[in-house]
Please model this.
Amino acid sequence: MLVTYIEAIRQAMDEELARDKNVLLMGEDVGVLGGAFKASAGLQEKHGADRVVDMPISESLIVGAGVGLAVQGMRPILEMQFIDFITCGFDQIVNMAATLRYRHGGQTACPIVVRGPSGGGVHGGLYHSQNPEAWFCHVPGLKVVAPATAYDAKGLLKSAIRDDDPVIYFEHKFLYRRIKEEIPAEEYLVPIGKAALRKEGRDITVITYGSPVHAVVKAARDMAAEVDIEVIDLRTLLPIDWATVKGSVRKTGKVLIVHEARLTGGVGGEVAARIAQDCFEELDGPVMRLAARDVHTPFAPAMEDYVLPNQEKITEAIRKLAAY
Amino acid sequence: MLVTYIEAIRQAMDEELARDKNVLLMGEDVGVLGGAFKASAGLQEKHGADRVVDMPISESLIVGAGVGLAVQGMRPILEMQFIDFITCGFDQIVNMAATLRYRHGGQTACPIVVRGPSGGGVHGGLYHSQNPEAWFCHVPGLKVVAPATAYDAKGLLKSAIRDDDPVIYFEHKFLYRRIKEEIPAEEYLVPIGKAALRKEGRDITVITYGSPVHAVVKAARDMAAEVDIEVIDLRTLLPIDWATVKGSVRKTGKVLIVHEARLTGGVGGEVAARIAQDCFEELDGPVMRLAARDVHTPFAPAMEDYVLPNQEKITEAIRKLAAY
Amino acid sequence: MTEQKDRELYRWLRLIREFEDRISALDKQGKLMGGVYSGKGQEAVTVGFCHDLRWDDWVFPLHRDLGAFLVKGADPKRLMAQIFGKRDGFAKGKDSYLHGGDLANGIFGATSMLAATLPVAAGMAYKFKIRKEDRVAIAFFGEGASSRGDAHEAMNFAGVHKLPVIFVCENNFYAYSTPNELQFGVDDVADRADGYGFKGEVVSGNDLHAVMKTAGKAIARARKGEGPTLIECKTYRYHGHSEHDRADYRSEEEVITWESRDPIFLWENYLKQRKYDIAAIVKETTEEVTRIVEEAVAFAEASPFPEGPEAMEDLYAMPIDTEAR
Amino acid sequence: MTEQKDRELYRWLRLIREFEDRISALDKQGKLMGGVYSGKGQEAVTVGFCHDLRWDDWVFPLHRDLGAFLVKGADPKRLMAQIFGKRDGFAKGKDSYLHGGDLANGIFGATSMLAATLPVAAGMAYKFKIRKEDRVAIAFFGEGASSRGDAHEAMNFAGVHKLPVIFVCENNFYAYSTPNELQFGVDDVADRADGYGFKGEVVSGNDLHAVMKTAGKAIARARKGEGPTLIECKTYRYHGHSEHDRADYRSEEEVITWESRDPIFLWENYLKQRKYDIAAIVKETTEEVTRIVEEAVAFAEASPFPEGPEAMEDLYAMPIDTEAR
Ligand SMILES: Cc1ncc(C[n+]2csc(CCOP(=O)(O)OP(=O)(O)O)c2C)c(N)n1
Ligand SMILES: Cc1ncc(C[n+]2csc(CCOP(=O)(O)OP(=O)(O)O)c2C)c(N)n1
Ligand SMILES: [Mg+2]
Ligand SMILES: [Mg+2]
Model:
């Protein structure tokens, strides 16, 4: 089945809504409109307005209500129209949902999924380009995923919906219709907590996730004659699949971490720190990072391009590390 | 003048309120009560109810109103009764205040200070023990400070109030009345962006900030016969004083980072990553981190102690690194 | 009401009062850690709203609603252990006071963030509605918490779907030190209901009869699918915000005035008017509640504190070990 | 009103309309990037509220309030450059559309987060109040944005201090695709004002006379220290939510009905009734607004895009170089 990334998301929700009557989708304009990006096109018609719910513009309520439903055994998918608006529901995520089970001494689970379009490269400006995953990776009790392929988008979303813990699911809007992939017709899941080896290699490990995965894989292919690159797509950012990461680093001895989120305080810092501590003896060069510059994502094309990582910057960073 | 940490904070606000009519203090119970911890005792009486304002329980409004005041040239200090509640004003901080100048192409500054009691060790449980600084260190446009001494508490708060950018000021409630220091009677400032060398040493650099500074300094003194420890108190977490950090690391070749916030996604990851990349050649051992375990800060004493760093864990970590 | 119910209600008022008093005493003795937020003086609100609920209804108490725990069915022993931060508390010591709920009895544990439970209650009520269950969710909050955005978002959503949720505002005239004039520009928070499309009512929160009447009607409406109600109970906390707050911001006269309307005093008066054997009732009840609270304290004191490593438990329902592979 | 003012108002309505139409056309031609949110059909609201403001009053426009920029004094050329994301825009290309304000003219640039400007407006009004300045802050927002917690917190605070802020709710019956019935449980958002202790009014947002009358009274009250007002303007956006929204969720009949109440049409009718030389006015105005918009487009097209490294500018007012030391 040849599907786009966003169609994969739609299918995941459709299948899970059909499979389990406790699954709900709630968000602004997810019903009649089928979502601002059509991620839920047709789902309200098919599954009913009770279960695919057009919500008021109240992100905090959306998440909070999701927790109330979860306590009743429901499994709500909570859409942020753009992931940038997750800041408006921040308290409910980090203090209400992430602590629910813990502060009840294990009496309950909290099976909610918060999802929405993240990422830049589409001239979205300050509030339609954000990659806020690092905030949530600092919050115990949450799980965080960020698929880069249509296959993973579907499989991880289905896993997230079935997961008993709160999962923050970052989809990348740049990929929505730009990638098309063959995925299985039959049902499948992608496990949370497991990275994907996108390409094997012996010289350098590039660790990445989300939109840059594609540019990194391309770079790895294009540069094959120069350097043998191993590409790891983290997919899950909390918890990170350290076994896979460290296994690769121990093999190659050189690491570049690439993400679209800003450098300072980004997920790459944690990954680099962990490698620097645990693989110190095996490193043949500094753990390098390539990420967005430490500034908001600006609107005008040249500035946006200046700020975000791109193919050229990735190639350059790999060369620099290879030459080390 | 012998003052506690909290008295230093009170003095800073008092002096700045007196110095500049544009300075305001707004927060819940800051007026008649003088603050939940008495950080603003007597200030409303002295400076008037218009300028020391008891606010409704509306953290988002408090920060947003502060931005409106800032655009008018005022310099509001915005108190969160506990810093944990900053999540309720999160959007206004990261999307409104941090972008104000940027999205106006430099037309305005945003001189607000958001401050409040952070930190654990006082059996405060999940919502009165948080150290959420890492979230804000990932947000360009903000400055983040976290004083460890009464001297710095006063000098940094005065600098923050005079700074034209939004400053998030994390005070540590464990230190409020537990430390007492001699500070100058005459006015002084502590510059934002400058770390403090708490002790010189040649063998190991311990980088820390906030409450653990005291335990680290004690360890450095106690272990002087074993190992010569250099202690850096970052004081400002965004931006970090890389010149001081790297200078020290280049000298000692061994680094331990200690903070009370949780390990994963904490500020220490960024510091470690930066050192691992930029000082790779100079490192004689892995960059190590000691931080809270990746879980919420629990209430019961043995669990809280198990989760947070303490004197014993610091000593142990230093020994491990020294032995490397 | 039958004599039995009249006496039962009295027993609840007294049990809560005894519990609150004992907690304050324990705090004074330095036996408790963390904040203690006495609801003494407000007992009629929680008794009035919780007494006639079914076990499968839900309550969302805030920091001063210890009574809601008791009346809704929480084991006094475990509640006391919770307050001590012991392993037998609802949170197994992970948090204290009222942050751990007793879910099996339909009692939700709040975060500290005031009003954050209101969206949760509304969401749960949405489930009751779509599953056609005639259950209700009762969300308690102080008048100070009414200022938070979450209160608004929750009430607005409840209004859209006419959800079986009841918003109970306990207006005790102060949020910590902040008086109502600095909290909102109206006399009655209940006025807000109009702006959400449901009924708002003001009631004397110290008058158990009045509370029960209003609560009963609202609960019946909710069960019948007629939507939410916002009920503002005017009441008073005798103690400071927490036990270490001397509450200098209010006058002695004000405190005395409210003490003269004490809910237990009023109810005893009613029992007298009904010509019950008040002396016997008081004696019996005093013995019973004293015993219950004694047992609770003994249990809590005997309950062990959790060990350090237990801190790592109960974080995830489906943990993933990513180091091991 | 004088003929001069009547004509001036007409000119503003027409200039905004021309601006909106041109932006839509430019978007169709692929000349714009990012979202375009046409306020076509809602012009009378912004003209009515902004026309009689002083230069030192402030407006807080949201995504559909392009008119507020123009009437409050923003240079049409720079506004167009802003929309193009060019260096001469208010944001110097850092963000587009209405996210960059023109602070020298008292126009605040919004974030995308709906209703987040309301607390800012309230805070600014607090300054006007304590400094005894008879200035006002006008915060515009859609009926959808009214559901957000920030709207509540801002109005509540404004009510406490009787601040000189006016909350203007543009109820155009849809928030993207979401109709009012799913947004709130009431007919009129203005009903909420009662719950904050100030006046709420509903007015036809397409009727410039009605808007100006209501706005004028509210502004006068605010200047005199008599506090805030919540004014709900019932109006309609002709276009979809953004230019790529076909707005299938509403009926053609509904659109036509609203077009028949077009604010410009109504105003022209009024000018006719006043027996002004309508043909001449229309001709003259058309020429003028066309010229202004032409010039604005020419300016914006000629304005350079910022270079990459300019992305790093304007982040901090007091930058600190921590690498150098
Ligand atoms: C979001 C948030 N802000 C601030 C606080 C700190 N705080 C705890 S209780 C309280 C006063 C609450 O007043 P009210 O809601 O009237 O309840 P009461 O204590 O009077 O019962 C405050 C400000 C908090 N818990 N949550
Ligand atoms: C906090 C937040 N949530 C969601 C959005 C996405 N969004 C942009 S405009 C819009 C609809 C707004 O409706 P309304 O407030 O009625 O204004 P209108 O567009 O009708 O003028 C939505 C949901 C947003 N900008 N901010
Ligand atoms: Mg109160
Ligand atoms: Mg609308």
Q: What stands out?
A: The first helix of chain D runs from residue 3 to 28. Strands of chain D lie at 58-60, 137-142, 165-171, 174-175, 178-179, 199-204, 229-234. The domain at 3-301 of chain D is CATH 3.40.50.970 (Rossmann fold).
